[in-house]
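I am writing to request your help with a piece of structural work I have in hand. What I wish to show you is a protein chain and, alongside it, a tokenised description of its three-dimensional fold. Could you please explain, in whatever detail you think fit, how the structure tokens follow from the sequence? You will find the record immediately after this paragraph.
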Amino acid sequence: MTSARDPHRPATPAGTSTPASPAWNGDRIRALGTVTDVPTAAQIFRLSRSTAYDLVSTGDFPVPVLRFGHRYRIAVAAILDALHLPHDPPPTRDLTSSPAHASIVHTQSTDPGIEHTPPERQEHRHE
């Protein structure tokens, strides 16, 4: 099903103004680069395109808007600040490379009542 305005664009469900898209998160916003356009920023703030441009024209958009001739751009850093998200992605911890990496080590029990059998010779015992 396509929209009447643009036959190549999927139609939107009844009662919505934009097609469904994946949720915006910090990683996806940071992936936009340094600046983005008004329609993209509007999606992030869950605004319709027309509302976003109305807010831009009145100076009430949630973040500062840069104007270059007839084009508007919005700094991604400003969007991240408005949403209280860090500019840099949180560090990922590679648990396998740290000295505290857990590994299975076979040790001999110090309990004299437990007989130790090396792992390669262990037999399954059913009691």
Remarks:
- Confidence is low (pLDDT under 50) at residues 6-16.
- The radius of gyration is 28 Å.
- The chain has four helices and three strands.
- The helical segments are 26-30, 38-44, 49-58, 76-82.
